[in-house]
Amino acid sequence: MARDSGEPGDPAPPWIAPMLAKPDGGVLRSGPQWTYEYKLDGYRAAMRVGPTGTTVLTSRNGIDFTPEFPDLVGVLARGLDGRAAVLDGEVVVYGADGRIDFGELQQRRGRYRKHAGSPRRDEPFEDVAEVRYLAFDLLALDGRSLLGLPYDQRRALLEQVPMPDPYRASVVPAFTFDALAADRRTPRDLLDSVTAAGYEGLIAKLRDSPYLPGERPESWLKHPLVRTGEVLVCGWRPGQNRFAGMLGGLLLGAHDPVTGDLVYLGDVGTGFTDRDRHELRALLVPLERSTHPFAVDPPRDDVRGGRWVEPHLVGEVRYRQFTRGGADGRNGRLRHTSWRGLREDRAAAEVVAPRTAPEPVAPARQAKRVTVRAGQRQLVLSNLDKPLYPDGFTKAQVIHYYSTVAPVLLLHLRDRPVTFIRYPNGVEGEHFYEKNVPRGAPGWLRTARLPSGGSRDTVEYALLDELPALVWAANLAALELHVPQWTIGPGGAGRVPDRLVLDLDPGPGTTVVECARVAERLRDVLVADGLSPVAKTSGSKGMQVCAGVLGGSPGDTSAYAKALAERFAAETPDLVTARMAKALRPGKVFIDWSQNNPAKTTVAPYSLRGRDRPTASTPVTWDEVRACRRAERFVFTAEDVLDRVRDLGDLFAVLLEERAELPAV
Known about the structure:
Keywords: Ligase. About 20% of the residues lie in helices and about 30% in strands. The chain is α+β, with helices and mostly antiparallel strands. Strands 12, 13, 14, 15, 16, 17 and 20 form a seven-stranded antiparallel beta sheet that branches. Strands 30, 31, 32, 33, 34, 36 and 37 form a seven-stranded mixed beta sheet that branches. Strands 3, 4, 5, 6, 7 and 8 form a six-stranded mixed beta sheet that branches. The termini are far apart.
């Protein structure tokens, strides 16, 4: 318990243990019941103010902060005008760039500790790093406890407290879901602006929630950010075991923002595809040099086994932290890195190291099971913090992706029986196909019992036509969603094809670049035949060309697709094959026309894939197809897809809006 520093007869109000935020598992909550605040990067502190302005600052674990932050004492006295109060908030320091700087706050604390241990400790502590108190809750006012009031009411009272000196104390902005919607914005838009402003993330708070001292309930959820940054490739490590003969990892650097010197930032060993590993190794071998390129020797143990290269290649990595090195904030390291790819649009001289670094914060252990609301239904989700991809992309992030992309994805799943590919232990573990609805499926899940091929057996398929069904499937680690080229009618009748698909699969020695050249020619033929084709990546190594069709039978679409494939194979036998035989496929693109068979399925647009990274099958524009010259630029992650949908809309919607009859073969 903190000690009171007030005068006799005028004590500060008693300390209240702070309510804590729970990790949201990567799923930013959305809906009118939520309000959003910035996630701050400082010291959590209660500010207790007595009737005459006596002020006590108390840390989250009950330690008296008041001597350390004397410039905050009495800052609210004039505004409260004789009323006692208890506020919850954060003590922060702003850097020269106008952003909250936790590293500077830490250095200030170091100077305070040195002062407290000196013979002159009785003198007031003064420091050039000015602190500011950012309040986000009001727990008591004028002798009245506010803990039982809903958040909205406490917030309204807090905003009525005058802040006489906004340079030393102010109220953290809050954004209700409704207010964002009125501005034609979403919580995701707010998160983007938070990212640009350099905050740590967002805290989502239920508007009707009381304040629960010392607890970590579901009503306050924190959504931290994972950062991305540009780096210089300064060295590499040869791969071992399965990666023998390939690149194992990269040694990274950047220019010091003050001196311009090249400094070591750490390494990255995840996020590469096998193709990445081969191609990067081929690029780096000609750039090798005998010594490292840094201004200061990197730690020997950190770079053991590395081969140095001229620092010409610019790449991009994801990272969770940039940790400080020395007291000046230099010589920091990127932590929890994952490779995103080369950035040929960036010059090496532009790559600058981060200058500040928040200290690691150990997140609370995510609950094994959590109840959430999706649409009008309640679901129990499990193991949200479980990584499903090597780069750490968790089940929670999978659920977040599918929840966010649902408005466009569901349009292309509606009335189509879904085949799942499930990865319960992540993409590096065992996976399996699942057509039958698994045991334990919710009673509200819409299903369809259909014949299984030519046998008398039947399969009960799931139909994912609403958000809760999509979230339920994602919780099963059903990363991939595959659907046929037909929909079911009332009572399961139908199977009339409404899509034509030509699946372009690059054989050994070819890539999606060669697929794009074939796709361009296919588009011209399909348009001449009166169709409106759309292209999408497979999310793996190839792509598909699709078109909406009217009438006809499965035999008609298969015959038309086969005729096209054989025509292309005859016209350009050095580039295209229409036969599946592996011996015929090296150096060629296989046009798989058989995907139009009613028993076959194709990965759905916007579906994730079970690869090294959380890539997705992504609709692309024909301009993008024509411009495709490098395979890595036709790989889109979940994050990329969400950005594209926001900026470009549903490029696959053409198949729903424009359908035409196939010409006779």
